[in-house]
Write a structure and sequence with these properties.
By secondary structure, this protein is of the alpha/beta class. The protein has a single domain (45-280), classed as 3-Layer(aba) Sandwich (Rossmann fold). It has 9 helices and 11 strands. Strands 4-7-6-5-8-9-11-10 form an 8-stranded mixed beta sheet, with helices on both faces. A 3-stranded antiparallel beta sheet has the order 1-2-3, with no helix packed on it. Helix 1 (57-68) crosses helix 8 (235-243). One of its GO terms (molecular function) is metal ion binding. S-adenosyl-L-methionine binds at residues 72, 102-103, 190. This is 23S rRNA (Guanine745-N1)-methyltransferase.
């Protein structure tokens, strides 16, 4: 955990002034204060209504289990490599992960960017608690990607957006000159045998167009690639990958466990992702 590494890049979500680090608190010059949780994260989420899309504790535990087992390791490598595209590791000082979840991909990038600090933003306190201990140079912040981000103009050299919502105007404001936005989405081939066998949510064939539309014309795609690899998943891993994704909102856990129990002990499936690197339009 290191909010100290990122506090200079944060702003008060109430008034927009900079924040300073005090004794277990972040505070702006106008006196707005935000307590640092004992787990090391801070909530800069304003308003009393909790967002309905925040990952539950069960979803976060499933993601932690699945990613911790290394099933998506090739994707972690690809994301880290994309962070260096067009800049070089020495030039990346700040990586912001919008919708960071447990901080798994951001931590992987920081491992390969020795001089960089990471800002993990997620609306789920359950996820951010995990992210706060994902890397020594990562600062974890509860924030809603759909709202104005509590980050200074031009603070980020790289923005990561892995399976998360996109806020084109705010990404354009926060990304510094020459920076890159790395967006990762699943393709329709992702986990297809499990999607068909278990009735999971499928990937929209029109997703690529919707991704571009969500950036509000403020970015131009400079690179695009598809990353695929085979995975051998036992039933426990299948339960975890189902439980960590959007299908978890739409399936009954007990019914899903019964269906997973009917699967072979080892299930061979393809992980398939589209990675796009965007540059901000002039």
């Amino acid at each position: 955990m290191s909010l100290a590494d990122i506090v200079e890049h944060l702003i008060c979500p109430v008034c927009g002034d900079g924040l300073g680090l005090g004794d277990r608190v972040l505070r702006c010059p106008r006196g707005h204060a935000f307590d640092i949780a004992r787990q090391g994260y801070v909530s800069l989420l304003t308003g009393s209504q909790a967002p309905g899309t925040a990952d539950s504790a069960a979803m976060v535990a499933a993601r932690d289990s699945f990613l911790g087992a290394g099933h998506f390791a090739p994707l972690v490598e690809a994301v880290a490599a994309a962070c260096r595209t067009g800049t070089g590791a020495a030039d990346v000082r700040v990586v912001m992960d919008a919708g960071a979840g447990t901080g798994h991909y951001l931590a992987g990038a920081l491992d390969r960017l020795p001089g960089a600090a990471g800002i993990a933003l997620d609306v789920s306190k359950n996820a951010i608690r995990r992210a706060a201990r994902a890397h020594s140079r990562l600062g974890a912040v509860v924030a809603d990607v759909w709202r104005p981000l509590p980050v200074r103009d031009g603070a980020a050299d790289v923005i990561l957006n892995v399976f998360a919502p996109r806020n084109g105007p705010e990404f354009a404001r926060v990304l510094g000159p020459g920076g890159s936005l790395v967006v990762v989405t699943p393709t329709p081939r992702h986990l297809r045998p499990l999607v068909e066998r278990l009735g999971l949510l499928s990937v929209d064939e029109d997703k690529e167009r919707r991704v571009a539309a969500s950036l509000d014309g403020r970015f131009a795609e400079s690179e695009r690639s598809v990353h695929e690899f085979e995975m051998a998943l036992d039933r426990a891993a299948v339960e975890a990958v189902v439980g960590m994704g959007p299908s978890a909102w739409h399936t009954d856990p007990e019914n899903m466990r019964r269906e997973i129990a009917k699967l072979p002990e080892t299930n061979y499936v393809t992980a398939s992702f589209r990675m796009s690197i965007f540059r901000r339009n002039p």
